Amino acid sequence: MGPRTLQVTWLCVLVLEAFGCPDACARCALTPADQCEECRVGWQLHQHTCVDVDECDGEPGRCPSSSYCVNTEGSFKCRDCDQACVGCMGSGAARCRKCAAGFRMTGAKCLDVDECSDLVLACPGLNEICINTAGSYHCQCAEGFIAKDKACVKKQLPGVEEKGLFEDIQEDEVEVLQQMFFGVVLCALATLAAKGDLVYTSVFVGAAAGMAGYWLSDRGHRLLDNLVKR
To answer: In this predicted model, what pLDDT tens digit does every residue of 81-97 receive, in sequence order?
Structure first.
């Protein structure tokens, strides 16, 4: 066999290994070309065929405690456990080794605990409401209230301020109230001095006196104004 024939033979071998071997084979027989003699990493040889190795089977510790192992062709992956789990054996809340804080084993699953229902006064603040979340909860101000100085206070409309009970009373109305008040007080004192049982009468007479006083004072002011103008 000449040098040229040897080169052609090696070229044929390389072509067969490159295009004739299955993907999992690292090296296969020349004839037939589909018989593997050596497998790639992650595969094992079984009767001239490369079979995937299940790296997750019987191999504890391949993945961190907060994840679980998933076998793939020729390799494996680590995937995070469900948020309800502290350690797991697979996907979902039914494969937990232990329930995480805020979750409770119910049947075969770790389910969320509704702290807003379970806890007495979960949100003790006035005008606060409890909002349950996965594994926890939080407190927020009720509708129409905002947080201010660690308390929920009523929300103010823009440009509108709260007014006191007597802030809308005009000056003339204040004068009327004063006249009525003094009239009622005087009549009540007069009634008590006479030891009479005339409470309702005194209230009525006092109110009338106050109104009359206001009317007379108003008339007097007008009369003085007219005299000054003249």
So the answer is: 999 999 999 999 999 99
